[in-house]
TrEMBL record:
The keyword Repeat does not apply. Transmembrane segments: none annotated. InterPro entries: Med31_sf, Mediator_Med31. Pfam families: Med31. It is found in: Nucleus. This is Mediator of RNA polymerase II transcription subunit 31. It comes from the Eukaryota. Keywords: Activator, Nucleus, Transcription, Transcription regulation. GO terms for molecular function: transcription coregulator activity.
Length: 119
């Protein structure tokens, strides 16, 4: 994809369903933190679609400032975006076992983070 990353929304920017390109891409990339959503994408065969794979490559700009600061859950979002760059992961995320492992890891990380915050 030759498009450049969007800038945070400006007042005169065209809207897509009432949202700026920036907002649409932010919402989508954050949804990648959910392993059950990744499984859904795989079940819809999107993770084997070359155009979708290119889109996932393009979304890697979220790893960089200033975009990184807009992510609510940067850890799992960026981890899963990175894993989605690998063909093997895109094939294996259809497995309910892998989805459960990722979900459990996310829960554990959240619990650990809250414990550390209280200390």
């Amino acid at each position: 994809m030759s498009q450049s990353p969007p800038n945070p929304p400006a007042e005169d920017e065209p809207l897509y369903g009432g949202f700026s390109r920036f907002e649409v891409e932010l919402e989508f990339v954050q949804s990648l933190a959910n392993p059950f959503y990744l499984n859904h994408l795989a079940s819809q065969k999107l993770l084997s679609d070359p155009a979708f794979i290119e889109y996932l490559k393009y979304l890697q700009y979220w790893n960089q400032p200033p975009y990184l600061r807009y992510l609510t859950y940067p850890g799992p979002t960026l981890k899963h975006l990175e894993l989605l760059q690998q063909e093997r992961f895109r094939q294996e995320i259809i497995s309910p076992e892998l989805v459960q492992v990722l979900a459990s890891e996310g829960q554990k990380a959240s619990i650990d983070w809250h414990r550390e915050e209280k200390e």
